[in-house]
Task: structure prediction
Amino acid sequence: MSTPGTIAAIATAIVPAQGSVGIVRLSGLVAVAIARTLFHAPGDQIWASHRILYGYVRHPGTDQVVDEALLLLMLAPRSYTREDVVEFHCHGGIMAVQQVLQLCLEQGAQLAQPGEFTLRAFLNGRLDLTQAESITDLVGARSPQAAQTALAGLQGKLAQPIRQLRAKCLDILAEVEARIDFEEDLPPLHEAEIQRHLELVLVEMSHLLATADQGELLRSGLKVAIVGRPNVGKSSLLNAWSRSDRAIVTDLPGTTRDVVESQLVVGGIPIQVLDTAGIRDTDDKVEKIGVERSRLAAQNADLVLLTIDAQTGWTDADQVIYEQVKDRPLILVFNKIDLLGSLSVSLPTPYSLLPSAKTAAALNQGIDDLEAAILTIVQSGKLQAANLDIAINQRQAAALTRAKAALQQVQGTIADQLPLDFWTIDLRSAIQAFGEILGEDVTESVLDRIFSRFCIGK
Result:
């Protein structure tokens, strides 16, 4: 895939009356020429790579000043794209950056497509495909742990084990093909040694594949629905947990009429918490809509917090709600535990084995207990996100799965004592799959799909 022309785009978020700096970025053969046409740097400032110039952006036809700005020059190959890159650092907001971008386009630049700067960095050998994908993960990170995992990928920590696995498969393929081409000149192939190497590769691949669910959890987060009958303290729990007054709290049942959301981070995992309307039969048309939305939220949630009034204990109404959500991962939350005194929670035996937490939401107590219960359930589902160095995404997992299947086929071929030519077919398939992950053997349609998810200007 070629990279013709010079591209330009606004590289920062544009919000009216917000943001002190807005950046217009150019990359390509005539980026510097466009900058020289538009930018006036007073005095004897030196136009050299990796220097910042101060001056004014002027309209080349009218000489009218468009903005007071800084100009950053990064000449090839010492730039993000390994092409000449120019950045106009303008005043933030909308008008300044849009006017500067328009002037760049009028001087011959093309408006960049989503992810086109990073695509050029990949095509020019500045990044491999795992690093490019880590950039969009870093931009979209919703927790410190997600950002650290993405940064590790950007630093090449994901590509390194993939390259090592691919190299081991290439070594095995070379040994096999050497025996095919020079059978009479070389000693017989040591099949047991080949099997041992294949087994080591498969074990390492399994470790990498195990990070796929963990990585997805870090990227997309966990959707948690707080459900229960009216007046058990669901809204108070949301407020205490989010340290805000997102939900209205009263003693009147049916106060919450719609799903209320809050974004939290627990143990490095982004969590979207949904406070739902109390589930009960009602003749109130508005409340009935809220109840139906509560049921839908519970069915779509990754985890349900079934909230029980600790003072009242397990009721028939709780049983009805439990039957509706029991197919989801679930934690029983015994709220209002402060009103129970020395008494214990009343709970039928079958449900006493369910994961549980005790809270006094009105007093902001028990949140640590609740978060510990959530992390325990996450880890029991083999989605542990803590201390995760690297994590593969769905595309990489699919390629690794194909490579694993191909290597297992090689093992079967060896066990069946088939000719060496059969070994090479599946070895090449595995090597190709590794190459797809790194971007060394990938189609243009795959690249388009990957980079279309990037923001414009990145």
Summary: Confidence is low (pLDDT under 50) at residues 246-258, 382-387.
